[in-house]
Amino acid sequence: MTTLAHTRGAARLHAAFEQARTEGRAAFIPYMTAGYPTAAGFPALAQTLLAHADILEVGIPYSDPLGDGPTIQRASEQALAGGTSTRHSLALVAGLRAQTDKPIVVMTYVNPIYAVGPREFMRLAQRAGVDGLILPDLPPDQDLEIAELAAEHGLAVTFLIAPTSTPARVALVARACTGFLYAVSVTGVTGAREGAALGEVPAMLALAREHARAPIAVGFGVKDAATARQVAGVADGVVVGSAFITAAANGQDVDALAASIRAGCVR
C-alpha cells in the first residue's frame, strides 16, 4: 500500500503552501464548478482564477451536494443541465492542466466516485493531472479504499472539520489529511455571509494543529479581501467559491475580485 502522506500530489500542494508562506501570506484557493457557466465557458473562467491562485479547486457537479449552499447548488444544476458529467469534469481539468503547472484539487462527493468506479475514477483523475481530492462526505475512518486508491494514483486527500466537530473527530480528520485540512468556518453550507468569517475558527485550528501533518485551509463565508485577511491571520490557506460564482452570474469582474481577495491573503 502506498504511504498516504507521501504522494506526488501532497508534495505539490505542500510546496504551494510553503511558497505562499515565504511570501508572507496564506495560500489563495479559489473554487469553480466544472462546466459552469457552460462547458465551453468554464476554461476561460477557470483560467481567470488560476492567474491569481496558488491552488485551484474544481468542483464536480452533483445533483445532491449536501455541503453546498444555494449558489454552488445552482451552479452544479446548470453544469449538469449542460451535460457536464464526472468524466467530462475530469476532461475539463485535463485541459487546464495542459495550460498550468499550478496544483489543482477536485472537490467531489462519494457517489460520483462510485458511479464511475473508484479505481477508474482515480485513474482518470491521475491522467487529468489532478493533485488531490476534497471529500466532504467521506469520514476518514470509513471506506479506506478510496483514500488508499487515491494514494496509489499519486493523489492527496483532504477531509473537512467544522465548529461542531468533537475534539476526537478533529484529531482523527487532521491526522488523515495528506493534501491539506479543510476547516469550515461556520456551521452550515457553503456561501458568502455577512459579518466576520472567524467565529470559533481560531480555537478549532489550534486543536487541529496538534495533530495535522498537512497545512490547514479555511473556507465557507469568505467573500472579499476583508474576510480573506481575517482568515489569513490564522490559517495556511483561504478558500473562496460562492463569491466567484455570484460575480460570474451577475456579469461582474471576476478577475478584479480574485486579485482583490488574493491581496487580502497577506498576513
Automatic annotation (TrEMBL):
Q: Which UniProt keywords apply?
A: Amino-acid biosynthesis, Aromatic amino acid biosynthesis, Lyase, Tryptophan biosynthesis
Known EC number: 4.2.1.20
Q: Which organism is it from?
A: Deinococcus arcticus
Molecular functions per Gene Ontology: tryptophan synthase activity
Q: Which family does this protein fall into?
A: Belongs to the TrpA family.
Extract the InterPro entries matched here: Aldolase_TIM, RibuloseP-bd_barrel, Trp_synthase_alpha_AS, Trp_synthase_suA
- Pfam families xrefs: Trp_syntA (PF00290)
Function, as annotated: The alpha subunit is responsible for the aldol cleavage of indoleglycerol phosphate to indole and glyceraldehyde 3-phosphate.
Subunit composition and interactions: Tetramer of two alpha and two beta chains.
Q: NCBIfam families, alphabetically?
A: trpA
- Reaction(s) the record says it catalyses: (1S,2R)-1-C-(indol-3-yl)glycerol 3-phosphate + L-serine = D-glyceraldehyde 3-phosphate + L-tryptophan + H2O
Functional pathway: Amino-acid biosynthesis; L-tryptophan biosynthesis; L-tryptophan from chorismate: step 5/5
Catalytic positions are: 57 (proton acceptor), 68 (proton acceptor)
Q: Which domain of life is it from?
A: Bacteria
Q: Which GO terms describe its cellular component?
A: cytosol
Protein's name according to its UniProt entry: Tryptophan synthase alpha chain
